[in-house]
Amino acid sequence: MRRYSRITGTGSYLPPRRLTNADLVAELAAKGIETSDDWIVERTGIRARHFADAGVFSSDLGLEAAKNALQAAGCSAQDIDLLIVATSTPDMVFPSTACILQNKLGANGCPAFDVQAVCSGFVYALSIADAMIQAGAARRALVVGAEVFSRILDFTDRTTCVLFGDGAGAVVLEASDTPGILASDLHADGKHVDILCVPGHVSGGSVLGDPLLKMDGQAVFKLAVGVLEDAARAALEKAGKTPADVDWLIPHQANIRIMQSTAKRLKMSMDKVVVTVDQHGNTSAASIPLALDSAVRSGKVKPGETLLLEGVGGGFTWGAVLLNL
Ligand code: ACO
Question: How much is the average pLDDT of 131-149?
């Protein structure tokens, strides 16, 4: 009998410090940076984001999200035999945030590693966990997206610092006789490295180059809408399905206009799109599992429904995962 993987629990966590646009506009104004609630809402759909306090790391946010997902799945950390963390804001250069989180969780012993695909990290990690479960290399995986993007923002650059937030989301993915994950489609094109990057690196005990996020927003926007449509159609085709079969589109929460364009290209109504960017901002690898968990917990997304998760981010990377919840 063919072996599949299935999500059996979701969880998420947002650090308590919440900044509305008005809060951020006031903080930036004090530094001489001019922006407005109107500009941020009109261009991005973002109204608020959460920032972690100093000393709180991706593994700390991931820990809370993971505990919630394990509780929802009705299992304990010791039941996990694979741990993957998607993050671009790891606690340390090494070891991986997955190893640090594993120890905090008490899931010691199972394989644990990070996936670095920026905002596509969660769909990459979910696809890898699915492949390992299908191959018999794991039975119950914990897949986490966790970020503290506030640490790599340049708060003198109004074109980027208003866009991002911190948070974490997680799912428990278990071996199953029935699908679960129906298809996935992943891509990267390294020729676009420069349009979205944190170019600094550590050398000789110092950071050389700029350690803060740089983005060509318009280039990202144009690429994102094209590749999100392509990835969605490819994943659907692999499963013999069409956009009409999808109950909920859960895209990376970068910008409401990218989500609207993607939905339009797929001829899907915005009523079928899960939107949390207004409350979370762009939380990179955490955005999809955060949106998924909030939709599950609010009762919007129900067991048995067909979901299309889509990520796009620095690299450039992009991908989609189609699944039955
Ligand atoms: N407040 C006020 N004005 C601003 C701000 C701000 N925060 N930021 C930029 N502006 C100004 C610009 O200076 C410019 O002024 P000018 O016309 O006088 O020169 C004007 O607004 C328009 O700027 P644009 O860059 O043309 O604005 P645009 O409509 O393209 O919106 C945005 C910018 C929101 C960044 C958009 O390009 C976008 O969403 N791109 C995609 C970004 C994204 O999703 N990134 C995440 C990808 S995922 C990942 O891997 C992290």
Answer: 98
